[in-house]
Amino acid sequence: MTREKSAVCFLLFSALLHGQTDALSVTASKTVDLTPDEMTFSVVVLADQDTTLEQVLQVVKAAGITANNLGGVGSSQFGPSPNQSRLVYQFTLTTPLGKFKDTVDGFTSVRRSLLANSSNMELQTNVVAITPAEASREQARLQATPDLIADARKKADVLAKAAGLTLGPIVGISDVAPALNNQFGPVYGPYGPVGQSGLKTTFIMSVRFGIR
Fold first, then answer.
1. Class at the top of the CATH hierarchy for domain 38-131
2. DSSP letter, residue 62
3. Per the CB 3.0–4.6 Å rule, which of 28, 55, 59, 192 could disulfide with 152?
4. Cα–Cα nearest to 98, from 182, 186, 36
């Protein structure tokens, strides 16, 4: 038995187990190179235990951070005594890549304000991701869809013919979440360099065809 016929037999056997003896499912994928256009910062504020969220937000608003950016609140021990711990306010800030300098300037402004007021708070920041924006990925997905369907139809037609069947119309389509490669690098130090010229994203689609 040829490899193609073996693949067809496996697909038809799988369909039979699911009660779908009149359909053939195939998967197609396409990798595109997207230009990164946004970056995500992890922002941490260390503060004394009696510091409120409102006080923290008042300090970090100069960096464009609001309560909507809050990811969680924890504590950090810096000595053996139970009193030697600090609150850890963790924020996530996503900004356009073109506003990198403005964002960094905002962090600098916050740090200068803390020093000028002898504040007990400490600001820590780090770049954690450089990625295409959601809108860019969605546009690329829509552009890739016709090619994915065409590729799936070609694969399904080969398998159907190998099994002596005739490929029918599409009876179902499902997308798999895109796989984004190299989204975290390269990033060195707290601020840069800010990444590479493009990021490879793989779109995957499962298409089910009727067969007869």
1. alpha beta
2. G
3. 28
4. 36
Calculate helix-pair angle for 3-17, 134-162, nearest 10 degrees: 110
Residues 6 or more apart from 200 whose CB is under 8 A from it?
31, 32, 33, 34, 180, 181, 182
Q: Dump strand ranges (E) for 70-166.
A: 70-77, 85-96, 122-131
38-131 matches 3-35+134-211 in CATH topology: no
- The listed CATH number (3.30.110.170, 3.40.190.170, 3.40.50.970, 3.30.70.1450) that belongs to domain 3-35+134-211: 3.30.110.170
Structure tokens at 15: 């369909």
Distance of CA 118 to the CA centre of its chain: 38
Distance CA 106, CA 113 (A): 11
Residue ranges per structural domain of the chain = 3-35+134-211, 38-131
Structure-token pair, residue 158: 């080969």
List, for residues 201-212, the tens digit of each pLDDT value: 889 999 999 988
Tens digit of each residue's pLDDT (9 = 90 or more) over 132-153: 888 888 899 999 999 999 999 9
pLDDT of residue 181: 60
Other residues' Cβ atoms within 10 Å of the Cβ of residue 45: 26
Considering the chain, what is the average pLDDT of its residues? 82
